Amino acid sequence: MSEKNDKLRDACLDAVLTLEKIGNGEYDEIKDKLNFCIGSYNHDRNPVGLVEFGQKALEVLKEIKKQNPRKFKKDIIDNLEKLL
Prior knowledge:
Layout: H1 2-22, H2 28-44, H3 48-67, H4 75-83
């Protein structure tokens, strides 16, 4: 189970990096919460926050992808969907 959670953490980190690249501050809240959950997971290995905010980030990324299909690779979304 821990390996899957580590992969989820990595997918969430990819989502954070993607939001940093494409955002102009409008995604700071979800990005900050996801960053906090990544740090929390690294400390206590409890993936609850990763799942909750990973799901929210997934919704945001899907909406961005729908509006701007070439903003980022679809792999970011696919990885999150597979692990959530």
